[in-house]
Specification:
heterodimer; A: alpha+beta; six-stranded antiparallel beta barrel; B: about 170 residues; mainly alpha; about 75% helix; MreC (chain A); Cell shape-determining protein MreC (chain A); Cell/Rod_1 (chain A); cell shape (chain A); MreC_beta-barrel_core (chain A)
Chain lengths: ~300, ~170
């Protein structure tokens, strides 16, 4: 027999729907209680996330590693020869080395621009069910982190601090669809607005239509008033294609972020901005083409053969 | 009896929520991955009466809304989950052929995940939430549905045991 419903069931459903609409209204009106609930849930979850990060660290990048299998085949063959304990140790060590490498590059970046940074470990990646791009770090207001601070990684801009809790903070990644940042093109100093698209690609909209964009142009953060949310000079990405459609009001381009958002292990929050704008000091150095050795063969002609009879 | 059921249900839901937020979210899977918590809530509803389904949807949706990485306003997921869980429970209730059939439940859960994501997109667009490029949305929608199709058959026996234990129904899948 099919369920035919009933007055009690209908009433319950209506009450629940009205309650959820009530919650939406309260949240959209900015009632503090609901923010407190989210903050409380993060405070409770933070120790579990740290524990989960420790448990998941050996296999969290499993799928991205698979895509690079061809490049690491030799390394895998070496690992196969070792016993299980050594392999586990190696994986853990590899993870730590990668984080150390990221950390070193991050310090170089911050040191060049004179940023005062606070490094933090990523303890949770945000869920994608809400189509948002976030991550949680293991440092919060107790460490001096505040909302709207710039977050950088070894290769450039990672995002911005969205929410702060006592021992953790939620970072809105630059790839999030709601992310917007004012950028300038290194060299020409033309300005534009970069919007996240949910992936490593972003869309740049130039303010001035007279400017000519070129593939490979480097984008740097323009900086905000009081240096929040963005400090100036942080490398953001480079132009990969330019939209030259005739009818466009403003010139736009597709940009690839320098940051690989799926491989972030450690990040740094810029807690102190530089006294002077670093300008183009952080523009990544283009890889130098390796000189191809020119082989010169000198041929000395032998004396002309003499005809012999 | 009702106190026991409510307590057990709440504890199991909180456990699944913590598992999702602390462990499953750590792993970056291609295509957006899956939400074990939403799968669990939908399986729970598929095995329950429509009233229990609606209440389970309310609780589950509210917990998803409390997740710091949730982008919409509090209440958005609550509303979506109430309707989805009630719908799934309503479709399955009273028809033992479909309720006792794991394939039907897997199909209902996959459809539930897909429809709830579509509902989130539509309501998000109405509420002014930025959702990203069309290609990225399509990847996540298809990816999440595929992952749900892959994961649900493995988790269904465990979830149905939890449900049977809580409601003392004795019927397991």
């Amino acid at each position: 027999m099919r369920y035919g419903g009933g007055n009690r069931s209908r009433l319950l459903l209506i009450i629940l729907i009205v309650s959820s609409l009530f919650l939406i209204t309260l949240d959209l009106r900015g009632v503090q209680v609901l923010d407190g609930l989210r903050s409380g849930s993060q405070t409770v979850l933070s120790p579990f996330q740290k524990a989960g990060n420790t448990v998941a660290s050996p296999f969290k990048n499993f799928f991205s590693d698979i895509t690079h299998l061809g490049r690491t085949r030799n390394q895998l063959e070496q690992l196969r020869a070792e016993n299980f304990n050594l392999r586990t140790k190696l994986i853990n060590r590899k993870n730590a080395d990668a984080q150390l490498k990221q950390f070193k590059s991050m310090l170089d970046l911050a040191g060049t621009a004179d940023y005062k940074i606070l490094s933090a470990k990523v303890i949770s990646q945000g869920s994608t069910q809400s189509f948002s791009q976030t991550l949680t770090i293991d440092a919060g207001s107790n460490s001096g982190i505040k909302r709207n601070m710039t977050v950088i990684c070894d290769s450039g801009l990672a995002g911005v601090v969205k929410e702060v809790y006592p021992n953790s903070a939620l970072i809105l990644l630059a790839s999030d669809p709601s992310f917007r940042i004012g950028v300038r093109i290194a060299g020409t100093q033309q300005i534009g607005i970069l919007s996240g698209q949910g992936s490593r690609k972003a869309v740049l909209q130039l303010i001035d239509n007279q400017t000519t964009l070129q593939v490979g142009d480097v984008l740097l953060a323009r900086g905000s008033q009081q240096n929040r949310p963005f400090v100036p000079g942080v490398p953001v990405g480079s132009v990969v294609s330019v939209d030259n459609s005739a009818g466009a009001i403003a010139q736009s381009a597709s940009v690839k972020f320098y940051t690989n958002f799926s491989a972030l292990g450690v990040v740094a929050v810029v807690v102190g901005a530089p006294k002077t704008d670093p300008r183009d000091a952080l523009v990544p150095v283009k890889p130098r083409p390796r000189p191809v050795p020119t082989i010169t063969i000198l041929v000395t002609p032998s004396p002309s053969p003499t005809a012999t009879k | 009896m009702i106190t026991r059921q409510l307590t057990f249900s709440a504890l199991i839901f909180l456990f699944m929520y913590t598992l999702q937020e602390s462990l499953i979210n750590q792993v970056r899977l291609p295509g957006g991955g899956f939400s074990i918590f939403i799968i669990f809530a939908l399986v729970w509803s598929a095995l329950s009466t429509p009233e229990v389904g609606a209440v389970a949807g309310f609780g589950a949706g509210f917990l998803v809304d409390l997740s710091p990485s949730s982008s919409g306003p509090v209440g958005q997921w609550t509303l979506i989950m109430i309707l989805t869980c009630f719908g799934i429970a309503f479709l399955g209730f009273g028809d033992d052929k479909s309720r006792g059939n794991p394939i039907t439940i897997v199909f209902l859960v996959v459809a539930g995940v897909f429809l709830s994501e579509i509902a989130f997109l539509i309501s998000g667009a109405l509420l002014g939430v930025n959702l990203g490029s069309l290609s990225q949305i399509a990847i996540i929608l298809i990816g999440m549905s595929m992952w749900t199709l892959l994961i649900t058959p493995f988790t269904l026996p465990i979830f149905s045991r939890f449900h049977a234990f809580t409601f003392d129904t004795g019927s397991r899948i």
